[in-house]
Amino acid sequence: MFEGLSDKLSSILNGLTRRGALTEEDVNAALREVRRALLEADVALEVVRSFTDKVRARAVGAEVVKSVSPGQQVVKIVHDQLVEMLGADAEVISLNAVPPVGILMVGLQGSGKTTTTAKIARRLKDRENRKVLMASLDTRRPAAMEQLAVLGKQVGVDTLPIVAGQSAVQIARRAMEAARLGGYDVVMLDTAGRVTVDEALMVEAAEVRTATGPHEVLLVADALTGQDAVNTARAFDQRLGVTGIVLTRMDGDARGGAALSMRAVTGKPIKLIGTGEKVDALEEFHPSRVANRILG
Ligand code: GDP
């Protein structure tokens, strides 16, 4: 049977005879397991290092509280540190700006960007009673534009009519104008994705950003891509100034490592998670739940 990190830490540390405080030796033994578990959960190496350093600083010399075992105590320190690094409070999408509020959706092709755009639009419409307009800026892939239109019908959210021959910036401007005229609260701009981060993609998205001044720039990233997701997040953030991350495929086998890595590397909050293919499979991000998942 798979043994979770919590069990492993308990079995290592509970064998110790009780001494007043946790020694560096005790903590190092535990940290070897923590490091292994984080790497198994696909947390980036640099993040594993800074994480274990922080846990060491908190744990060495900590008095063992009488009511708990040393194992439980270290599990708690690891849990608390995970929650802190994941971002203690769940953040929500901010609409606190003059309408129509722009939300720019960026990310690699296949990350779930278009599906997530529709999921968020649906949520804003149903839960917050907002009038939302969606527009696809993927001029190279007519199928992506069609996909957004189909999803729009499915969730009951308007999509900007497709006009052939326009550039991404032209479509984005037209979307903002249509939203102004039509009294929309929110405009969701679904930018083109590529299989890898490329220069043309970044230049185009940056131009759209400048032209429309979105209030949120949400990076959609696939939780299953692990370490790659970190490099992607860094590249998008450097070029576009990401305001939040939506992590998709959290329904899969991912143990949450990508969440920890992306948050640590970009410092940007994870705002929502995708938990399935259906349009209602979108949830708030709860750091404590992800911490428990990593702890196993
Ligand atoms: P895009 O190329 O980034 O726009 O990606 P799509 O939105 O077309 O999504 C690619 C595939 O991933 C589709 O089959 C989606 O249904 C699926 N997908 C998106 N989000 C999730 C998620 O959170 N969980 C699962 N299991 N599948 C997802």
From TrEMBL:
Family label: Belongs to the GTP-binding SRP family. SRP54 subfamily.
Catalytic activity: GTP + H2O = GDP + phosphate + H(+)
Subcellular localization(s) per the UniProt record: Cell inner membrane; Cytoplasm
Ranges where the SRP54-type proteins GTP-binding domain occurs: 269-282
Keywords: Cytoplasm, GTP-binding, Hydrolase, Nucleotide-binding, Ribonucleoprotein, RNA-binding, Signal recognition particle
Functional summary from the UniProt entry: Involved in targeting and insertion of nascent membrane proteins into the cytoplasmic membrane. Binds to the hydrophobic signal sequence of the ribosome-nascent chain (RNC) as it emerges from the ribosomes. The SRP-RNC complex is then targeted to the cytoplasmic membrane where it interacts with the SRP receptor FtsY. Interaction with FtsY leads to the transfer of the RNC complex to the Sec translocase for insertion into the membrane, the hydrolysis of GTP by both Ffh and FtsY, and the dissociation of the SRP-FtsY complex into the individual components.
EC numbers for this chain: 3.6.5.4
Chain's gene name: ffh
Domain remarks in the Swiss-Prot or TrEMBL record: Composed of three domains: the N-terminal N domain, which is responsible for interactions with the ribosome, the central G domain, which binds GTP, and the C-terminal M domain, which binds the RNA and the signal sequence of the RNC.
Parts forming coiled coils: none
Oligomer status and interactors: Part of the signal recognition particle protein translocation system, which is composed of SRP and FtsY. SRP is a ribonucleoprotein composed of Ffh and a 4.5S RNA molecule.
Included stretch of the parent chain: 1 to 296 of 516
Annotated protein name in UniProt: Signal recognition particle protein
Membrane topology reported for the UniProt record: Peripheral membrane protein
Binding site for GTP: 107-114, 190-194, 248-251
